[in-house]
Amino acid sequence: MRIFYNSITRLIIIKNTKITMEKKIYLLYSLCLITYVGYSQKINTENFIDSVVFWKEDVEKNTIIKTDPKQYLSFQKQINVFENSILSNPLKLDDTEIPVVFTLITEKDIQNSGARDILEILEQVPGFQGSTLDGNIRTIGVRGLYGGDNKILFLVDGHSLNETSFGIAVMTGRIPISLIEKIEIVRGSSLPRISGYSPLATISVKTKAGDHKNGFKASVQQEFSPDFFKKIADMSVGNVFSNGVNLFLSTGISQGNISNKVFLFRNDSISSNYARNSQYENVFISAHASYKGIGIKYLFEGYSIGTDPAATLYKKNNRYLGGHYIGAEHTISKENHKIHSFVYFKAATPLNNGSNKQDQISYKTHLGVDWLFTAFKKIGGNIGVDGVILTQNYIQTDTFFNSTKKNTLTNNNIGIYSQFSYKTKITNIFVGTRLDINTFTGVSYAPQVSFTKKYNNIHYKLLFSKTYNLLPIYIIDNTDLSMNDKNTEDFVSGELEIGYNYKNKLYINANIFYIDAHKIWDINNTEKYFRTKIPSTTGIESFISYTHRYFSVEGSYSFYYKFSEDNASLFTINESLNPNYKNKYLAYAPHKITLNTHIKAHNILNFFIQSRFYSERAYFLYPFSTDIKTYPSTLLLNGGIHLENLPLKNITIRMGVNNFLDTEFRYGVPNRSTPYDSPIPGRTYFFEIVYKISSD
């Protein structure tokens, strides 16, 4: 049975039903009653749907199961479960059949996990591990590879938050997680529409302003321990008006420091007062308006790191990453095709080490047109063109870039992409390609071939792709321009995913991957970029979850191993500096295990326990020496309680302990040009209270 809800006529159409006559009569009577009451009383029909039991046909088993009627209240979500998603899915396939390694994290998942910031959320995803850049800059890596230089694309409501100097997705103190509606994550091979901008992974965050919500939500979060603090206050509000106008707003203010532990240079010298040196603050605003397929998005960040005036280490290198982001979209949807046009513009301050925290500014425009279509119910297509115009300049006219000695640098790119899919009884076939023409790297070409299928409870994905990245300004400025080879950094990968789903209670998934990297840029002692060898990486990512009425358990295991013809195993350091360097790892642990448990002890009381284990990691002391040292194996344990359905209606409370074992854990640096690691705080205590009113 297919049920469509039309917000204009308030009618529900039922067809292709194979249920008993008794149930048909009951359904028709209920629908007529809803329609009559809704029109005669001139009130929202949705308020009456809750009292009706809908029946949905399970197409695969030809049985009738009870279904939550609210899932049918959005016509577009019924047409495509990935509407407003980073994924192009014209055939409306299940997420187990789309040609990417995909993870969806919902608001409920975040709540049950006990995570307190976006980096902690990502650390629970197989393959992801945090790292640092220059001490107080936290970022992310995946599968043992560094995520800087635009290798990981970080989106918030469609806006790219990668800073433009180094292409880094800064994770420290960004979006308050209570404002997050969902996070879509693609690891490894991406779709052609984004493969030129995210060779290793794509992280797309949708805030509550980004989805259709009627109501208001506000929260306050406090985390504290000796010499450590974190304060967050945020709110979101939205409304869908009867004339079709949608307005949404999310805003948050956060302030805190990264750690209260002692900061160590790589030569083991001590820098005290890291609590002050790692202080940050951020103001976040996201606003959306839409009407009949036309949407306007605005995002503002006033983001500073090293804000404490008593700081010593970063007092002169105060970092400011604030900026304005504006986007506009227009979507035309028909029965068999959809045309989506967009333009995103940002004016932001990139990461830099200048004495003036705002001495640079970058302007980036990303625009394009995307066409999705289907034919004969078996063929799907996605064709599009997009372009990026990037300009970065110094505000001070007497300041110039290092190598080019110019006040302004530009990097423009135009891309054409396509993907075609064919659905058969045996397998789904996907063939895609992307062609980019760049002012710096020239012409780049990325083909992709994938095979997927779901058989009852088992699915598989076999993915082959080539991807590359849009080089950041710092590499363009510092590259040896006498080189003839100025092509992109290329990644050729193959992946096999196999999953099993038992009655939506037990889910098991395993993914084997291989990534071969080519033409990676490295930096030498004279601060010039040049081509260097990088090892290939291979490994396995596995995930298991079990859901019961009173508890849920999720666990993951990730392993990677780096190798190459000359056995160089680390990412960016020339192994000739030390022969003992071979077969070692840098910054990222080769083994990572996560385990999350959520227990519903009562209608009001919930417990959550989060644990992460990292195996021993090696790090390099360059440039101070050529010695190799190690971080020992580490266990991190967080836990707490979540109170809901309280006598005080619309209020939920969460509290707990982070790093309960008071473990010493440090994020390493996967880039040899910055010899500083970053410790996490010791044992801290957190408290969050949320007030929510919603008519959804």
Please specify the SSE layout and strand pairing.
Elements: E1 2-5, E2 12-15, H1 21-40, H2 46-49, E3 54-58, E4 63-67, H3 75-79, E5 101-106, H4 107-113, H5 118-123, E6 128-133, E7 137-142, E8 145-146, E9 152-156, E10 159-160, E11 180-187, E12 201-207, E13 215-225, E14 228-240, E15 245-257, E16 263-264, E17 270-271, H6 274-277, E18 279-291, E19 294-305, E20 319-320, E21 323-333, E22 337-348, E23 360-375, E24 379-394, E25 408-423, E26 428-438, E27 442-455, E28 458-468, H7 473-478, E29 490-502, E30 506-518, E31 520-523, E32 529-532, E33 536-547, E34 551-563, E35 591-600, E36 605-614, E37 617-620, E38 628-631, E39 634-643, E40 651-658, E41 666-667, E42 678-679, E43 684-694
What would your notes on this structure say?
The chain is mainly beta and 696 residues long. The chain has a 22-stranded antiparallel β-barrel. It is globular.
| Mean pLDDT rating | 76
Apparent shape: globular
Poorly predicted runs are 1-19, 22-27, 33-83, 353-357, 524-531, 565-584
Largest sheet: 22 strands, antiparallel, barrel
Q: Helicity, in percent?
A: under 10%
Distance between the termini: 24 Å
Number of strands: 43
> How many helices does DSSP assign?
7
Strand content: over 45%
Class from secondary-structure proportions: mainly beta
Radius of gyration (CA) equals 26 Å
